[in-house]
Design brief:
single chain; 335 residues; alpha+beta; two-stranded antiparallel ribbon; binds zinc ion
Length: 335
């Protein structure tokens, strides 16, 4: 009586339903970090995924988590695939049952006392498998400097998903972009918070600006550390946090290139850079209160001992610009 259904069930037992994933207009398709704490969504170029990526290891561009390639489906893709596969199977079973009912009914003798008929209720049309659509294009496209795989992210990325390479340039640019966008967003943040509390708005924005100063110096320090170590004549051991101090760091570059910060910036710019570096030092170590060391090292005559320094948006922008000039010089000379 249920020949078709039994046959269909037997066939389904060995069926693999494969559901294709679509790429966006630029040929990228979605991936997601399998680490539950991260779940960072990114895109990889389809050609590179097939050509360069290894089944045994793919990396999350955000957290660096390494896992097998089959674990990088996005939550959306898994849900979509599950739904389509279920509907596909339901459709097949439903059709088989309808066919069984039809052949059962056709075999019933006509005109007897008892008439039997079987009907399968509901309407489950046979489903076609539709490729899972891709999210809209991400603006930031990156090509790994090591393996040349192309990937795309929103916000920041630190690791190549294909080879796991952590690019010093990439990391540095991410941080600088973040700092710049924080500074640019301060007027909006202030305006929004002002509606809640003027004190809160002022404090939050001040903290943010000061953080930009701290972050810029850390980014510069890390960038210089790595770039310096790439040079064949670099010393094997340099003082801890050498590049947070302009005199010590500057001396290290001078030894390698026979020129340094003072050649790359004007006198006035270098003096301002030094003041901003020293102010960063105060924020880090004295909560911004001017001490004797600051006065001696910065030659900043705007403050007296015991005052607290004031950092404005324009100072943060100025520091970022100096840092960009210096790192451009370093990059060109190391290459
Ligand atoms: Zn991750
Ligand atoms: Zn790579």
């Amino acid at each position: 009586m249920f020949e078709k259904l039994l046959k269909e069930l037997k066939q389904l037992d060995n069926t693999k339903i494969s559901i294709p994933i679509d790429t966006d207009e630029n040929g990228f398709f979605d991936r997601e970090c399998p680490d539950e704490e991260c779940m960072f969504v990114f895109k990889v170029h389809e050609e590179d995924w097939e050509k360069n990526f290894k089944d045994e290891s793919v990396f999350c561009p955000m957290c660096g988590n390494e896992s097998t390639s089959d674990t990088f489906c996005t939550t959306e893709q898994v849900d979509n695939a599950h739904k389509q596969a279920t509907e596909f199977i339901e459709g097949k079973i439903h059709k088989a049952m309808k066919d069984d009912a039809k052949s059962f009914n056709s075999r019933q003798p006509k005109g007897g006392f008892i008439s039997m008929s079987m009907s399968v209720k509901g309407h489950t049309p046979q489903k076609l498998i539709i490729p899972i659509p891709s999210q809209e294009i991400f603006e930031q496209k990156i090509k790994c400097e090591k393996c040349e795989s192309r990937y795309s992210v929103i916000g920041s990325a630190f690791f190549c998903p294909c080879c796991g390479h952590n690019s010093v340039e990439q990391t540095f640019n991410n941080t600088i972009n973040k700092i710049e966008s924080s500074i640019n967003n301060i007027p909006t943040i202030k305006k929004t918070l002002n509606e809640l509390s003027k004190d809160q708005a002022e404090n939050t924005c001040q903290t943010l600006i000061e953080k930009c100063l701290l972050d810029s110096v850390v980014a510069f320090q890390r960038y210089c550390d790595i770039m310096y170590s790439k040079h064949k004549n670099a010393k094997l051991k340099v003082p801890f946090n050498a590049f947070q101090k302009l005199d010590i760091g500057g001396e290290l570059w001078q030894e390698l290139f026979n020129e340094s910060y003072q050649n790359w910036l004007s006198d006035t710019e270098y003096k301002r850079l030094n003041i901003l570096f020293q102010r960063r030092h105060l924020l880090q170590h004295t909560e911004g209160i001017v001490d004797e060391k600051y006065i001696a090292k910065s030659s900043d005559n705007k403050y007296k001992l015991g005052q607290r320094i004031v950092v404005k948006e324009k100072d943060a922008i100025e520091l970022v610009n100096y840092i960009k000039t210096l790192t451009t010089q370093i990059r060109n000379k190391i290459e």
